Amino acid sequence: MAAASSSSASRGLLAAAHCALLLAMAGAASAGGAALSATFYDASCPCAHDVVRRVIQDARVSDPRIPASLIRLHFHDCFVQGCDGSLLLDDDLPVIQTEKNVPANNNSARGFPVVDDIKAALEHACPGIVSCADILALAAEISVELVSITRSLVPFIGKKFNSKLLASPEPELTESWTQAGGPRWSVLLGRRDGTTTNVESANNLPSPFDELEVLQEKFRNVNLDSTDLVALQGAHTFGKVQCQFTRENCTAGQPEGTLEDLDRVTPNLFDNKYYGNLLEGSAQLRSDQVMLSDPVAATTTAPVVHRFAADQQDFFRNFAASMIKMGNISPLTGSDGEIRKNCRRVNSKGY
């Protein structure tokens, strides 16, 4: 894993070097203002998106789970005192108590070394410019983008010739990458990093064992409605889960940490098959299936589940809109917070 992380960092640094060149050419203009904007880093760090993408793309080679893990980090960050990167902070007692050890995150939230690699590459390109909170927001969108790209082998007539019939080209197979049409959105940027954590709030993150009304209340508390709930749960269209959290609860006798696909139909694609699983009663998580089976669902979430199962583009549009909405939960902007140099530590510690 250390070698993979080093490779991710190396490719990120190459992108960072290119970004630094563009930054110098642009005059390193400062991105001011307090409102989140898709163009926030256009002048101050023009290659931010490319740097993040390259590190994730490289990390995914050795760890295919990374895209789903990074989306989850953004989710778990925003639901606790807003999208401020508090989830990334390590213990620094007695001042900082990490959110990483609460039940919803402990031995479950992952991808922190990749975030470290992204931060290192961005600090090389644009020192002190891109916040850790914005890294999580960018990583979430890019992760969906990468999972929505499929690979196939296609015939190719190249320059390799049959040794016996030199005049006859020999067909070969070559990799072809195609866009699968997953959701896209312009990531609004300009968040700053918090200097505190909130373990009490982190202990109240949505749980795979929650009833529907509990989930709806937790979403309402951060100004997200039932449509947002159904759309954002759709991120379970890819990724894996430990069997101890599933409805079957390791009944086959496997160890609790055994990983299972969240979507057993198309586990490696971002699509709407997840909602078909709900209609068949085969969702892996109780918190997913209740959106259709709970008595309260009939007039709230169930109609949305049916919509998304029938229309993938409808799901994609709503997922993108809900991700933007979630990314706007209580961000720190302007002079609030800070831009951490190390996502695991507040700057005042001097690490």
Automatic annotation (TrEMBL):
<feature type="binding site" description="axial binding residue">
    <location>
        <position position="236"/>
    </location>
    <ligand>
        <name>heme b</name>
    </ligand>
</feature>
<feature type="binding site">
    <location>
        <position position="206"/>
    </location>
    <ligand>
        <name>substrate</name>
    </ligand>
</feature>
<protein>
    <recommendedName>
        <fullName>Peroxidase</fullName>
        <ecNumber>1.11.1.7</ecNumber>
    </recommendedName>
</protein>
<feature type="disulfide bond">
    <location>
        <begin position="45"/>
        <end position="126"/>
    </location>
</feature>
<dbReference type="GO" id="GO:0005576">
    <property type="term" value="C:extracellular region"/>
</dbReference>
<feature type="binding site">
    <location>
        <position position="77"/>
    </location>
    <ligand>
        <name>Ca(2+) 1</name>
    </ligand>
</feature>
<dbReference type="Pfam" id="PF00141">
    <property type="entry name" value="peroxidase"/>
</dbReference>
<dbReference type="GO" id="GO:0046872">
    <property type="term" value="F:metal ion binding"/>
</dbReference>
<feature type="binding site">
    <location>
        <position position="263"/>
    </location>
    <ligand>
        <name>Ca(2+) 2</name>
    </ligand>
</feature>
<dbReference type="GO" id="GO:0140825">
    <property type="term" value="F:lactoperoxidase activity"/>
</dbReference>
<dbReference type="GO" id="GO:0006979">
    <property type="term" value="P:response to oxidative stress"/>
</dbReference>
<dbReference type="InterPro" id="IPR002016">
    <property type="entry name" value="Haem_peroxidase"/>
</dbReference>
<dbReference type="InterPro" id="IPR033905">
    <property type="entry name" value="Secretory_peroxidase"/>
</dbReference>
<keyword id="KW-0732">Signal</keyword>
<keyword id="KW-1015">Disulfide bond</keyword>
<dbReference type="GO" id="GO:0042744">
    <property type="term" value="P:hydrogen peroxide catabolic process"/>
</dbReference>
<feature type="domain" description="Plant heme peroxidase family profile">
    <location>
        <begin position="35"/>
        <end position="347"/>
    </location>
</feature>
<feature type="binding site">
    <location>
        <position position="271"/>
    </location>
    <ligand>
        <name>Ca(2+) 2</name>
    </ligand>
</feature>
<feature type="binding site">
    <location>
        <position position="80"/>
    </location>
    <ligand>
        <name>Ca(2+) 1</name>
    </ligand>
</feature>
<dbReference type="InterPro" id="IPR000823">
    <property type="entry name" value="Peroxidase_pln"/>
</dbReference>
<keyword id="KW-0376">Hydrogen peroxide</keyword>
<feature type="binding site">
    <location>
        <position position="237"/>
    </location>
    <ligand>
        <name>Ca(2+) 2</name>
    </ligand>
</feature>
<keyword id="KW-0349">Heme</keyword>
<keyword id="KW-0964">Secreted</keyword>
<feature type="site" description="Transition state stabilizer">
    <location>
        <position position="72"/>
    </location>
</feature>
<dbReference type="InterPro" id="IPR010255">
    <property type="entry name" value="Haem_peroxidase_sf"/>
</dbReference>
<feature type="disulfide bond">
    <location>
        <begin position="132"/>
        <end position="343"/>
    </location>
</feature>
<keyword id="KW-0575">Peroxidase</keyword>
<comment type="function">
    <text>Removal of H(2)O(2), oxidation of toxic reductants, biosynthesis and degradation of lignin, suberization, auxin catabolism, response to environmental stresses such as wounding, pathogen attack and oxidative stress.</text>
</comment>
<feature type="disulfide bond">
    <location>
        <begin position="243"/>
        <end position="250"/>
    </location>
</feature>
<dbReference type="GO" id="GO:0020037">
    <property type="term" value="F:heme binding"/>
</dbReference>
<feature type="active site" description="Proton acceptor">
    <location>
        <position position="76"/>
    </location>
</feature>
<keyword id="KW-0408">Iron</keyword>
<keyword id="KW-0560">Oxidoreductase</keyword>
<feature type="disulfide bond">
    <location>
        <begin position="78"/>
        <end position="83"/>
    </location>
</feature>
<feature type="binding site">
    <location>
        <position position="266"/>
    </location>
    <ligand>
        <name>Ca(2+) 2</name>
    </ligand>
</feature>
<feature type="binding site">
    <location>
        <position position="99"/>
    </location>
    <ligand>
        <name>Ca(2+) 1</name>
    </ligand>
</feature>
<keyword id="KW-0106">Calcium</keyword>
<feature type="binding site">
    <location>
        <position position="86"/>
    </location>
    <ligand>
        <name>Ca(2+) 1</name>
    </ligand>
</feature>
<comment type="similarity">
    <text>Belongs to the peroxidase family. Classical plant (class III) peroxidase subfamily.</text>
</comment>
<keyword id="KW-0479">Metal-binding</keyword>
<feature type="signal peptide">
    <location>
        <begin position="1"/>
        <end position="31"/>
    </location>
</feature>
